[in-house]
Structures are given as C-alpha cells and as structure tokens.
Known about the structure:
This protein is α+β, with helices and mostly antiparallel strands. Helices cover 22% and strands 34% of the residues. It has helices at residues 13-21, 63-77; strands at 2-8, 30-36, 52-61, 85-91, 95-97, 102-104.
Amino acid sequence: MKEIRAYVQPHKLSQITMALMEIPGFPGMSIVDCEGFGRERTEHVQDYKPFLARKRLEIFAPDELVEVIFETIMRTARSGHHGDGKVYIIEAHEGGRISSGERDKDLG
Length: 108
C-alpha cells in the first residue's frame, strides 16, 4: 500500500476528482487546504506573502492502483504553467480501520 500525496491548484480539484472517480476500485481521498511555495515564487509589493493557496490530496491505495492514480493526477492537474503542483508516492507500511478495529499491513 502506498500514499499518493498531491499538491494542486484549487481550481483543478473538481476536474481531478471526477477523473479519479472513473478509476475502477478508486479507494477515496482526503482533501486539505494548504499554502506553500516552491522554486517559482511570486513577489507581492505590498504585504509580502510568498505562499500560494493549494489543495493537498491524500490517497491511500493498493499497489496495483498507484500508477493509474499517479498518472491521472499528473495528466488532469497539468496546465503547462509554473506552479501546477507536485505529486509524491510514499510507502505506507500499515493501516487500521478504527470502526472495526481491523489492522492490516495491506489495508485497502
């Protein structure tokens, strides 16, 4: 199991969500509002604030779905401009379902 964590432009969220929901067996996701900056920084003359609004997607998926989810996000979130975002794949060693108490090393 892996976590796919993506930082995307807020205006792309609905398009990304619709594309991900078309993937058979898509496990769902969490969305978090966040701010940040990367190599390309904006400079505001007044009230300097380098942080830009982003949406963070957190998806825990079985290994067999990771590549299709990753590629779907990369394709759908891309506008071709700086600041489109980043996608990471992170190893998730173990998880648990609170409602059932189920604990598994490959919990989907």
